[in-house]
Amino acid sequence: MPYRRLPNTDQVRLRAMEAGLEMGKRTAAPQLAFSRLTLERIQMFYPKFSGAVRQLHVAKQTQFDRSKDYGEQLRKARLYLSHFLQVLNFAIIRDELKPQVREYYGMKANSKVIPQLGLESQVLAWGERAIAGEQKRIQQGGSPIYSPSIALVKVHYEEFRDAYHTQKMLQTATARASQKVADLRDECDQLIQQMWNEVEQTYQDLPDELKREKAQRYGLVYVFRASELKQTKEEPEEEELVYPG
Questions:
Q1: Per residue in 5-36, pLDDT tens?
Q2: 169 to each of 25, 32, 104, 200, how far by Cα in Å?
């Protein structure tokens, strides 16, 4: 015996309510398989839920669309910052600068290790230190580092920093929209279940196959169990008798 499966995604939830609403539009009240009260509740709830789902989709799509540019901005900021710090180390190795200048940038004077830049937070922190350190060193009479210059590092760093804050705002908007949908799901499922229960009760005295056929017009979904599907496949087909002409 196939069982009824309740919606498990938001799109399926919307389709279930839409099926009920459509039947409510084109079916006279006495013939409608579920109550007028349930129909009115769905009519009031559907715009709220569909609007929340739509807002979540827009938020996710906007975040996705921006993610490609954001990834490129992060890559460039990390690349220019890493190259700048490497050039700083090379200048120290060539005795063009004293090891103590590393301290301007928040690094240890005797360490040749380039700071870790794998995380966004690390790029933000070390980018700020590198820009401030280079500006301070130059103000105190030091020669600028080139290839890349700190001005070029700053351009890519600030582009990434702005994109980072935008991305965080988009993530917050997506999380807020997701929570709004989540808060409505229980009520949505209760309404759909109420409608489906009433539909099945209306058709409870009909033969099983006819009952399911009529209920499916209201969006009800029935699923055969694996054992039932296997049994159906194993049943031999009736042979067609052919009579000589």
A1: 899 999 999 999 999 999 999 999 999 999 99
A2: 41, 46, 32, 46
Residue 220: count other Cβ atoms within 10 Å of its Cβ.
Answer: 23
With a pLDDT cut of 70, the percent of the chain lying above it is 91
CB 161 within 8 A of CB 124: yes
Taking the C-alpha atoms of residue 198 and residue 43, their distance in angstroms, rounded to an integer, is 16
Residue 229's pLDDT band (boundaries 50, 70, 90)? low
The candidate with the shortest Cα–Cα distance to 146, out of 71, 88, 64, is 88
pTM across the whole model: 0.79
86, 114 Cβ separation under 8 angstroms: yes
User: Cα separation of 223 and 5, whole Å?
Assistant: 7
**Tens digit of each residue's pLDDT (9 = 90 or more) over 136-165:** 999 999 999 999 999 999 999 999 999 999
Helices (H), the chain: 10-26, 36-93, 120-139, 150-202, 208-216, 226-234
- Considering only CA atoms, which of 156, 217, 226, 191 is closest in space to residue 41? 191
